[in-house]
Design the sequence.
């Protein structure tokens, strides 16, 4: 076994690269999809650290290797780990629970047991390769027990945790039979980061209710074991973002601009292109959007001669039954709307169920007059930010669900409640008819936000807070909160 050790380690369920094997049995690596990778890759490259995670293929044990300046340390998962820990507890218990039970979560003890086992495996891998007093950044809801497991093995480490999805209100979180273990797991970190101020508040409330610990925003006092010194944990919001400048540069490339014009041409030069880009997930509100659009066509308030909707529905979690059902439902609806309203020359909806290179995504954003983000619940939603970054022409209208984390910052979007179908219909019409001057004013304001808070700002702020917690607490522990007068800098309110 290798004895390499790193002073900065990121750990997430998935590695930033996927192992793919072709028909001839040759293995290669390709960039894996998803918001997390998009967000963290530039940070890792700059920091020259190691990334611990699963390689995307079951039952293979792989040696660590270098990929594009990042040390990759694979953690093996078996088929049964995938079924119980990943598709089960992560995606069929935690995911629906944390997204406000939009779908019914399933609670199975054997899923939980495997979640504990797999979290331990990740914690062991990180403990093995982390240098003395290294900084470790644990990512997301699949690994909520890792902070405490790591602290137990390696109290010298500085441990951060970031939750990419919402953290629910206590009334919902308290359904989880293992709620106390999850809270204990997260409190192993020095800094627990969330997307929204509301998520951090929900977590602190869960800590008070379940543990009775003293909290004073953004601090939580965790008493020491057996009379040992207490620790002060920081729980606060760090809204994630995108690599704004590189996305902007990509969208400005002549080939991407040409491709955008080509897309418009290929769609029959409609007056308005509406665009939706989502993982095919029930949290994204794709059905609500299709309902609103279908009704507008039905009411005769829109016509396929003038308007077309491009819906990119990225394949996701296809082995989970509820996702298979969702795909069937969405595709049935798309087929109905196209059948009812399409003509030989004009389709109501161009439905694309596959992944695209980033160039093509950027071209779609440049081509789209109206971007529809109607998630029922979403930690942040990077698609909304990418659309804004792509619009250097200060044109285009963003319709954004108020249930996304992004809506806290992107106030100049047309904010909608996706459950209110009439409200969504009105917003679509308003976006289509919006005068150029108002479009420009809104887009300017949105672009300012996305330029100020890019992914570097996100990771710098998180890591500086983590570093600060080492300096402040030192090794001697913290004085009890009650004894101190804190001047607390609160994150801005939305
Ligand atoms: P996701 O739920 O995956 O992320 P999102 O934030 O929108 O959602 O990120 C999706 C990313 O995938 C975007 O960068 C997008 O461009 C890309 N993408 C989508 N479809 C694609 C396709 N067909 N081809 C190529 N690329 C595609 C989770 C949380 C979010 C949170 C992020 C980051 O659910 O709320 O914003 O993590 O924290």
Sequence:
């Amino acid at each position: 076994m290798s004895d390499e050790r790193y002073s900065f380690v990121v750990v997430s369920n998935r590695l930033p690269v996927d192992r793919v094997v072709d028909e001839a049995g040759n293995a290669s690596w390709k960039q894996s999809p998803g918001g997390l990778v998009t967000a963290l890759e530039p940070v890792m490259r700059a920091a020259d650290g190691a990334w611990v995670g699963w390689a995307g293929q079951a039952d293979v044990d792989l040696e660590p290797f270098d990929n594009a300046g990042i040390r990759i340390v694979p953690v093996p998962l078996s088929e049964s780990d995938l079924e119980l820990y990943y598709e089960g507890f992560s995606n069929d218990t935690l995911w629906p629970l944390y997204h406000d039970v939009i779908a019914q979560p399933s609670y199975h003890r054997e899923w939980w047991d495997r979640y504990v086992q797999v979290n331990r495996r990740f914690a062991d891998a990180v403990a093995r390769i982390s240098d003395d007093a290294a900084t470790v950044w644990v990512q997301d809801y699949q690994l909520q027990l890792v902070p405490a497991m790591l602290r137990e093995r390696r109290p010298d480490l500085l441990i951060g945790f970031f939750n990419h999805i919402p953290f629910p209100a206590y009334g919902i979180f308290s359904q989880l039979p293992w709620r106390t273990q999850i809270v204990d797991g997260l409190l192993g970190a020095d800094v627990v980061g969330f997307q929204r101020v509301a998520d951090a508040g929900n977590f602190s409330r869960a800590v008070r209710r379940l543990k009775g610990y003293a909290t004073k925003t953004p601090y939580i006092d965790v008493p020491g074991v057996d009379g040992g010194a207490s620790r002060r944990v920081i729980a606060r919001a760090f809204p994630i973002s995108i690599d704004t400048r590189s996305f902007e540069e990509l969208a400005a490339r002549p080939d991407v601009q040409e491709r955008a014009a080509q897309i418009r041409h290929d769609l029959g030069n409609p007056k308005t292109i509406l665009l939706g880009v989502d993982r095919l997930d029930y949290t994204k509100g794709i059905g609500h959007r299709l309902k609103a659009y279908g009704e507008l066509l039905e009411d005769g308030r829109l016509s396929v001669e003038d308007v077309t909707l491009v819906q990119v529905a990225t394949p996701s979690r296809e082995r989970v039954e509820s996702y298979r059902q969702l795909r069937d439902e969405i595709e049935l609806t798309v087929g109905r709307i196209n059948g009812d309203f399409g003509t030989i020359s004009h389709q109501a909806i161009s439905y694309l169920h596959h992944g695209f290179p980033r160039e093509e995504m950027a071209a779609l954003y440049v081509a789209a007059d109206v971007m529809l983000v109607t998630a029922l619940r979403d930690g942040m939603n990077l698609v909304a930010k990418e659309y804004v970054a792509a619009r250097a022409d200060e044109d285009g209208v963003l319709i954004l669900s108020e249930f996304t984390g992004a809506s806290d910052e992107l106030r100049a979007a047309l904010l909608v409640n996706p459950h209110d179908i009439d409200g969504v219909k009105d917003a679509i019409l308003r976006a289509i008819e919006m005068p150029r001057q108002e479009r420009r004013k809104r887009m300017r304001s949105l672009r300012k936000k996305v330029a100020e808070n890019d992914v570097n700002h996100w990771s710098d702020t998180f890591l500086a807070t983590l570093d600060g917690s080492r300096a402040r607490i030192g090794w001697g522990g913290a004085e009890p909160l009650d004894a101190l007068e804190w001047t607390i800098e609160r994150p801005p309110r939305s």
